[in-house]
Amino acid sequence: MLLSDKVAVITGAGPGLGRTLAVLMAREGADVAVAARSADVLAGIAAQVRAEGREALAVPTDIADPAQARRLASAVIDRFGRVDVLVNAAFPGTHRKNVLDMDDAYLEQWRSAVETAAYGTLLACRHLAPHMVAAGRGSIVNITSMSSRTGYAGRSDYAAGKAAVHLLSHCLADELGPSGVRVNCVAPGWIASGVLDDWMRARADAEGVPYEEVRARDVAAMALRRIATEEDVARAVLFLASDLAAATTGATIDVNGGQRFT
């Protein structure tokens, strides 16, 4: 198995990609620690990891809080004694609003969103990467986005947060490489989900056309003519986390069905 007897930590482990990734890593032999704000969601993910025959640790965490990020690292080391893989996927759900339409409350929400993505990723790396450095090995995979290099109206918080993580990953790759720790990114495009379907339906309603027409138009713009799934993204993360990518650092794998070439 690709992660046999390794310890993986996933921050931002929500009910979508985070859950899929945790289960996949467990099937590939890893014990998994999951961190997010929702204790109930984490408990469900941990149960699925244990159902795969691996150990699980659920640590409710606001990863942008320095004390909680430090507590997460301590909990992982106390339980497992080491960390081999760190996946940072935390980013809060956001609404779509143009910059000139933001009131004071939304401006604060913007700041919080970017802080969760960028500062939260920094804190997770700051407190967990030293254990990788001490071991002389490890892999950090940061989930960015197609939006980390292409901005869209109404999505400045998402784009800014993901772009910060993208370049932070380059800096960390340069800093940690001499110690045997690799740092890479996976940049999804659209991921098949109910949220994406709802957005397509909203666009169809605004245009006065059927949902199927909007979806077909979007898919036709992708080279592979299909929308990526959570499993597609998780497998790219798994590759970078594993020894198959032993000579890869500072890189980004785009998983967008050919919606954008980079």
From TrEMBL:
SUPFAM superfamilies, sorted = NAD(P)-binding Rossmann-fold domains
Can you tell which superkingdom this protein's organism belongs to? Answer: Bacteria
Which InterPro entries does this UniProt record tie to the protein? Answer: NAD(P)-bd_dom_sf, Sc_DH/Rdtase_CS, SDR_fam
Against Pfam families, the record matches this protein to: adh_short_C2
The UniProt keywords, alphabetically, are: Oxidoreductase
List the PANTHER family hit by this protein, alphabetically: DEHYDROGENASES, SHORT CHAIN, ESTRADIOL 17-BETA-DEHYDROGENASE 8-RELATED
Q: Which NCBIfam families match?
A: PRK07890.1
Q: Which family does it belong to?
A: Belongs to the short-chain dehydrogenases/reductases (SDR) family.
The name this protein goes by in its record: SDR family oxidoreductase
- Its source organism is Actinomadura parmotrematis
Q: What is the lineage of its organism?
A: Bacteria, Bacillati, Actinomycetota, Actinomycetes, Streptosporangiales
